[in-house]
Amino acid sequence: MYMKAIQVTFDEALLERLDRDPAVREQGRSAVLREAAAAYLVRKEAEVISDRYRSGYGDAAALDAELDGWAGEGAWPQD
To answer: Left (φ > 0), alpha (ψ -120 to 50) or beta: where does 69 sit?
Structure first.
């Protein structure tokens, strides 16, 4: 896999905290930051999917109110 070098700016306090982390010491900054970026993108994708579900299905309480009373209307066939 081709890796492209980029420049990232951190304030000194954050960089010091990052450098003290055992995983950073073991794997290196780049590996840890790649992992963090990948986790961020997974989290953002999950948020987008959740937002789409909320948008598509609306407020659960409103849906429950809209369907209230219909539970007893259906009948399952006799075996």
So the answer is: left
